[in-house]
Amino acid sequence: MSNHNLSRDEAATRSALITTHSYDVTLDVRDAEDPAVSGYTSTSTITFSAEPGSATFLDFIHGGVQSVVLNGQALDVGSVVDRDRIILAGLGAENTVTVTGTALYSRSGEGMHRFVDPADGQCYLYTQYEPADSRRVFANFEQPDLKAEFTFHVIAPAGWEVASNGVEELRTPEAGDTRAARWDFARTQRMSTYITTVLAGPYFKATDHWGVTLDDDTRLDVPLALFCRASLADSFDADELFRLTKSGLAFFNDLFDYPYPWGKYDQAFVPEYNLGAMENPGLVTFTEKYVYASRATDAQYQARANTLMHEMAHMWFGDLVTMNWWDDLWLKESFADYMGTLGVDRATDWDTAWVNFANKRKAWAYVQDQLPTTHPIVADIPDLEAAKQNFDGITYAKGASVLKQLVAYVGFDAFIAGSRQYFRDHAFGNTSLQDLLRALSTASGRDLGDWARQWLQTSGISTIAAEIVDDNGVFGAVTLRQDAIDPITGHQELRPHRLRLGLYDADASGRLVRSESHEVDVTGPSTLVPQLNGKRRPALLLVNDDDLSYAKVRLDPDSEHTVRTSLDKITDPMARALCWTALWDSARDGVTPAVRYVAAVEQFASSETGIGVLLNVLGNASGAIERYVPVAAREGVRKDFLAVLAARMKAAAPGSDHQLAWARTLADVSRHGDTELPLLRGILEGSIVIDGLAVDAELRWSFWQALSAQGQASRAELDRELQADKTASGREGHALASAAVPDASVKAAAWDSTVNSPGLSNEILSATIAGFSTAPGFLLEPYVERYFDCLEQVWAERSIEIAGRIVRGLFPGAQDLTEGMQPAEHPVLVRTDDWLKTHADAPRALRRIVIEQRSHLLRALTAQAAVG
Q1: Which of 109, 501, 757, 791 has the fewest Cβ atoms surrounding its Cβ within 10 A?
Q2: Sheet holding 512-522: strands in order across?
Q3: Contact of 624 with 593, CB cutoff 8 Å
Q4: Cβ proximity of 752 and 810 under 8 Å
Q5: 836, 865 in Cβ contact below 8 A?
Q6: Which residues contact 493 (CB under 8 A, 6 or more apart)?
């Protein structure tokens, strides 16, 4: 497909040549409700300066260009349009170009996404651009450092709600068409193309406002709005979302000491969204999965609040001040991830924000940082395809973790003072790493050059373990050993860590509580801890207590024994979460057998008070059984785990989050084992009632998916369930359940619909892939070779979003180690290596996905081989 992969060098050349001033964009979507209409008229007028006599190009992925007018002269379209680039030559010092063309509606979530609600047949539109899909909607200079002011006009059905970054200035009937109206929006402040946005459709809208008196006694008033599909309005908790929004705006406005700069603050929850959310200034878009039509846990509500705060922080980090190029993506995402957690911690009623960060976000970073494709936080991003793939655990969670360390290093007040100066110095502009370091160094009085080199410009994760000389229950020499291999260079990258050692012992009631703690600076491969010499050895020595540093921790043997026998007795939620993480890392790394992690979950998970931690450890255990437990032991381990899940679900407090967590996990694990299926069917049919368990649409579909994957649900039953749940989520649930049927013809049809047919939307595609992949190995074996045969064609013919879902989701990674086989000898690993060797010139982004999936498989096979 036509989709130029803009390089960093091309972008640098263009930004050195031109300066953009303004855009005036008109989009005519009045016929969007007609499925036979594939596109809409897009007119973009751009003013910009240039070196006289020079040439450059515009970006526009289109369904046809009707006209290009440069400085009043109509250009020959056939001569200047080169696929998705429009060549502009003979430029003047000041220029105006107008491009009129047909932009295409999307079903992939890229550009202008069109969605028809199965609940009521109504049509909804929204845009999503990051990193470079505004060129699918209007002609522009698609790179973050060519900022401009934008004025949008939209022609749409008269009864719709329409919104954009700027406030609505005028709404008028469209001349000559009683069906349509025209919306004119106010000109924006200077911003990058990728954060412009348009929303249009019969959305439900709620309004409110927030305001504050500033230090100069002026009043800042910010209109607020919330949008969701009309069919979700009854489930839309607008009052709570407004409450969180006002708390966040008050917190960040005060923290950053820079008034919210974008006028209004709208938030829209939209269908089939590829991201959690996107920080479009003045109109933030979120996945509508955050509108809970079914029962949600407190952890889900807290995660939504974290995303809300994350996007709000972007109004300053990322929108007000934007990176020059995607190498410095961390300048916005790492900061927003850190600030999102900080906002939940300080501006809401939740007190477990940093516990959940340690347990989930950091765990994501740890996984990503052990892949052969890991990268420094400040990454090398040569082109747009690389940028698309670097929205990952390194850029977000590792970056945020390292910023948390930086705050401890320079002090919170200095960190915020430096951030405030950074906003004042670079408002509405673009920056790089050095600009931020300069502001933080000035505020803190510390030279951050070495810190940046060691933490931002290297790859990999440190592993820290305590080596203890025991003198009859008293600490002799205690040494912290650091191992840190950069996966890219293969060299040791020993970073400085400021961390805390926590000593935990039993109190009078038998609970494990912290008796004392000591802060230690770890440098180099080994660090002596003289503070502990001569102290009585505690039951648990917790390295990195309070989660100050970014590192994996190995428990010493005595501490590991305490954790495996008394984890439920640790009273501090953060300490407990860190111990869970240590056990999981040990299982993932093949240091200890995965069955021991599953056993710990069976023994202690019911005592875990934090619902976020509980959901995480249950998910880990489920994955461990299917990927890390040796095949010979798997059926027995799964059967025991299913029995525990069923018993815990029945014993949990009626209506509690914990009861729901056990039920959801029971359904997930039952996709692979049939021992508790009579219980699931009984609950669905009403013959078995679990007191307090809300068997709503989401839980019902998860039960049906388990039954279907085990061949115990008929097509008629699945179709009847869909008739009762004619919603978008119901359609996805049905697609997964239908593709999960363990039948060769079903798998063939699912493969064909995902690989060979472009008709599935992004979310239905993913659901179908998930159902296809839920199958016994013999049913998927015929598709191993087909997978490798189709890779380059899929990458060439699909958008990067859709191609990425297919390549990642269909990789044959559910493989087992047979007796006597070494992990590296597994046939699928050998076949993957052969493909990588013979396709060295395949697109780097495609190779990256295959390399990562290979790494995940090798890790699973290595874990299966673990003994001890």
Answers
A1: 757
A2: 512-522, 497-506, 540-543
A3: no
A4: no
A5: no
A6: 454, 458, 459, 460, 484, 485, 486
Among 286, 316, 309, 288, CA closest to 128: 286
Within a 10 A sphere around the Cβ of 111, how many other Cβ atoms? 21
C-alpha–C-alpha distance, residues 863 and 833, integer Å: 20
Task: DSSP letter for 569, please.
Answer: G
Bridge partners of 527, per DSSP, are 480
Active-site residue flag, 626: no
Structure tokens at 233: 């309005």
d(CA 823, CA 855): 11
DSSP code of 752? I
If residue 646 lies in a helix (H) or strand (E), which one and from where to where?
helix 631-651
Q: What is the pLDDT of residue 868?
A: 65
Identity of residue 72: G
Quick one: pLDDT at residue 3?
56
The number of helices, as runs of H, and strands, as runs of E, in the chain is: 29, 29
Which residues fall within 8 angstroms of residue 320, CB to CB, at 6 or more apart?
A: 258, 261, 423, 427, 428
DSSP 8-state secondary structure symbol assigned to residue 543: E
Residues 368 and 358: their CA atoms lie apart, in Å, by 15
* Three-state SS at 849: helix
- Backbone phi, then psi, for 708, in 5-degree steps? -65, -45
List, in sequence order, every residue forming a beta bridge with 171; answer none if it has no partner. Answer: 183
Torsion angle of the four alpha carbons 81, 87, 89, 92, in this order, in degrees rounded to the nearest 10: 110
Q: Which two tokens stand for residue 695?
A: 């068997």
Residue with tokens 């599953």: 598
Q: Which of 766, 717, 720, 716 is nearest to 739 (CA)?
A: 766
CA distance 428 to 699: 46
Q: Judging by DSSP bridges, how do beta strands 94-106 and 198-201 pair with one another? A: unpaired
Element (H, E) at 12: helix 8-17
Neighbours of 724 (CB within 10 A): 10
- Residue 7 CA, chain-centre distance (Å), reads 24
pLDDT value, residue 1: 42
How far apart are alpha carbons 289 and 635 in whole angstroms? 33
Q: What is the DSSP string of 260-305?
A: --SS-EEEEEETT-SSSEE--TTEEEEEGGGS-SS---HHHHHHHH
Q: Of 311, 385, 732, 763, which is the active-site residue?
A: 311
